[in-house]
Every structure is written in structure tokens, then in C-alpha cells.
Amino acid sequence: MARIHEFEDLVLDALEVVEFKLIRRKQDLEDDRLVFQPLMAHQIFGESESIFGYKDLQVRILYTAGPLHIYIGVEYSSRVNELSSGDIKADNVVLTIAEKLPDGCFFVNMDEFLKTLDKADKFQPFGEKLSEHKVTDAQGTERLFEIYHCDYKVSAFLKFFGRLQTFILWFVDAASYIDVDDTQWSYFVCYEKYKNDNGDYQYATVGYTTVYEYYAYPQHIRPRISQVLVLPPFQKLGIGTRFVETIYKYYQSQKNVIDMTVEDPSEDFQRLRNFVDARLCLGLKSFASGVIKKGFNKEMIREARETHKVCTYICMHLPVFTYFLLFLFHFQLNPRQCRRVYEILRLYYTNLNDYDDYHAYRLDVKRRLNAVYYKQLNDIKKMEKAKVDTEWLRARLPTPSQRIEQLQEEYAQVENAYKQIIQKLRT
Fold it and tell me: The pTM is what?
């Protein structure tokens, strides 16, 4: 009888052996430059993210670039079934992955998969086009992207979306499929429009955003951005920013929208949100260079609310690149977020080589960072006046010298984050 510990070297890291490709043409099958690997695999293979029982394992998950038909292929030199004379079985990789996919949406036969590729040139985007924009990538190539709002009533779209959302299990932590039978979901999909080898235009799927339109009495809705996913080959091209701007614009035009919120953001999305809001406010009078250095004021909040009607206060939960929660009253940029935008744009206009200008900016931000600390001190003083023992409370607060050191670290982190946004604003 074979003992399983004898085959411990056949426990493989799924993140290393699983690979993805988006296939536009048959030549792409052998182009290793197109390979990208998952960020996580625990939602497929469990917390250990491991696959047992193979030597030289390669798991290939291929998608046709436009319609996203899926192929799953497994290659290996040997497996534990043979090495153990059948006493121990290797993990059934294809079945494990297939259990997480919509029924009938994948192929294990390459010839059948290639038949769908032959028809991919006929694939057209679903829905109504909302925007298009061009991007010059790192290789200097100009590329065209289009964003569409898609209708849940179209059954062909829902089948397509079922394939598209399979990516979240590999790239979004704690993600789950949305219920496509729920008619309150709204879908936004981005595609790249490109020329194939024959010079004809085709479309490749880039990513998607889902928005849940909550009902608000009596005849209103409160849209909440739920998922934002840009596929790895298209990241670092500003697609996420375009998604958010397009969704803002789409809902701003609807009179029945009260506010717009976001659910469980990642740090990446928080940075994206700050950039979008800062760019929206950059041209407002109350954020102009000559005004902003006088300090933060209520006029900034009022003008941002009335001009852009953007709600971007986001409740801090946990996961990665995508989710958001909290209700606000009025479709607006709330005071806390407005203050953050003010600090970004004031730094944008601050001359870092001018001691007085830069010093005034640092003091302004540090006063905001120190507000909670000083409030705690004032509360302790009030309690002491009332003859309440506060020794235990004071012990929990940092000493003045410790607080100065903490403040310097906090400020440095804030300024560094703001500078990254400013660099994008200047490009």
C-alpha cells in the first residue's frame, strides 16, 4: 500500500501551474508572451491553493478574446495514479475548475474550441455604446476602447456575462457570481476595437463593472457600484478610471437617481476614486490656485455637489481591486471626500521649493491628521475637571514626542499617495 507522504513532492502551487490566455487568432496558442497567471486560487482549490498528484503539470485556461468561449487543458509527464499503482488518486483538475463554471460554457477538446475561434470575428459588443477613447500603450501603439451599457433582457448577453464573470474567482478575493435573474443589476462592459490580420475590425473583451440599482421611495434609485474588473492584459491603461467616469456620467443624466455609492473598495479603487474626483474638481472656481491656499471651506463642498453631483464616500471593508458600501443623502461629493480632494489639489498648486508655501500646506494637512488626537486630549481634560480618573486613558495615548513621530509618518504616507495622483493629473 502506497503511503501519501511518499508523494509530497507532487503537491503543486496552483498559482504557478495555472495559466490564462486571451486568444485572438490561432497563432496566439503558442505565444507565451500572452500568458498571465491568477492572483489567487483558493476559491477553486481551497485555502492551500494546491493541486496534488502530478509531475510537470500545466493547466491551460484559454478564452476567445471577444466572446470568451473557454477551453480547459491539462498536460503532465506523470501522475500519482500510476506511480502508486492506483492506490492514490490525483486531483481531478478539470472537474474541480468546471464545478465553478456555468453549465456547458467550456470545452476540453481543442478542435471544438477552435471552431468557436473561427466564428469570433463576427462577435459584436452587446448593448448601447456610452463612450470611446484612445490610449497609447507602453509600446507606443494607439489602441481604441469602447464602453457599453448592456441590457439584462438579452439572453445572449447573460450567457456571455456568465463566462466573463468567471475571472473574478481567480482575480478578486472573496468574490461571488451575481444573480443574473435579479433585474436590478446594471452591466457596463469595456471592449477593445482592433484590426485583425485581414484589416477588419474585431472586438476583444477588456473588463466589466456591475451596478446594483437600489430602490428609493417613491420613484428613485440609488445605484451602488459592486464589481470592477479589468482583465490583467489591459491593466495600467486607465480603463478603471474610464469605467468610473462613464458610470458617473450615465447616472448623472437620470433625474430619478438620488445618490451613488460604492461597496467594499480595495486600495487600488480608493486611489482611482481620488484621482477621478480630483480631476472633476480641478476646473471649479473654489478649487482654483488663488482660492485653495486660503484653506478648506464649505463653498468647495457646495460647488462640488452642485456641479458634479458625485458621491464617492466609501466604507472601508476588505477585498481586492473592486467592491464598495454606505448610503449618502444627495448625489454628492461628501465633506470628508471633498476635504481629501482639497488636499490633493492644494498640493497640486503648492510650490515645493518655496519654504513658506510648502510649510503652510504641511501644517494644514497635519492639523487635520491631529484633530482626533487633540479631541481625545480635550475629552480627558473635561473628565479630569469632573474629578474622573483618567490615568488609564492617558496611558493609552502616545506621549507628545511619540505623537510627533507618528504624525510625521502619517503625513509622509498621505503626501506620497497624493503625489502619485498629482503625477497622473499632470499627464
Answer: 0.73
